[in-house]
Fold this protein.
Amino acid sequence: MTNDNCAGGTATELLLDVRKATFGYGPVSIVRNLTMSVRAGEVVALLGANGAGKTTTLLGIAGVLGCTEGSVSWLGHDATAPLHVRVQRGLGFVPGEQAITPQLNVKDNLRIGRGGVAGALELFPELKPLLRRPAGLLSGGEQKMLSLGRAIAARPRLLLVDEISLGLAPLAVRRLLSAVRQCAAGGMGVVIVEQQVRLALEVSHRAYVMRRGEIVMEGASADVSRDAHLVEAHYLDRPVADNADNTGAGNTGAGNTFSSNRAAGAGGNAHG
């Protein structure tokens, strides 16, 4: 059954459309020529090694960083507003760093969210016996559950989630990612930045792989999973032959929309 707090847009509605965007810090461009999209009801995984530019991409989409070239379109309109305005318009953002107030208890942490307490408990009933516990005393998995539940309870149209698995046991990660997938089933669009490639590809519908600040692979998650040798090469920063030279058993068939592009000339180091 789909959780009511996961309600989002109409299935296939284009929520986010990024075209040849550049994001960075001051005069330094970290992410270049980024093109990606997210539709209602789908989970999109953004993969890549440390420093590939994944977190910078989320910050650019969220409006924390400006778009110096290209465009970011949100619900069919150019998005130039800062983060707090985008949140009011239906954006949810769960950052990789601590997103809770440790001195407040769980209930008060949920109260300061836009969705209230009941919605978060419906998605994560595991939090109910912890309502009076200071959030700083929760386990890492419980803290992630709290921050994710608070964000989802606000019923965003698009949810950005950064490094949800960082420091967590696989069982806790699967619980969190299953909640993400559940919300997508309710019509929400989700972008997850994730280091655990296999789990991310299991839960997502489509995937992008970043290397040195650029998208170098994209396609249906099932296709990307079958081309694991290419993903590994990008993670290890090894040379990757052209797509025509890498057609294996998992990269054939008329319905295959998987694509791989060489990252030659990307240069520089990206953050995130």
